[in-house]
Amino acid sequence: MKLAISISGNTLDSPFDARFGRASAFCIVDTETGEWQAFDNPAISAAGGAGVQAAQFIASQGAKAVVSGAFGPNAYDTLAAADIEMYIAPGNQAHSATEILEMFKAGKLTQVEAATHKGYHGENR
Amino acid sequence: MRIVVASGKGGTGKTTVATSLALIASEQESVRLMDCDVEAPNARLFLNPSLDSHKEVGLLIPQVDENLCSYCAKCAQVCQFHAIAVIGKKILIFPELCHGCGSCTLVCPERAISEHLNVLGVLESGSAVHGIEFAQGMMKIGEPMAVPIIRELKKWAPVVLPTIEIRDAPPGASCPVVETIRGADFALLVTEPTPFGLHDLKKVVAIARELGIPAGVVINRDGIGDNAVEKYCIENNLPILMRIPMERRIAEAIASGKLLVEAAPEYHKAFQNMFETITTEVKI
Question: Which architecture does CATH list for B2-57+121-283?
Answer without folding.
Answer: 3-Layer(aba) Sandwich (3.40)
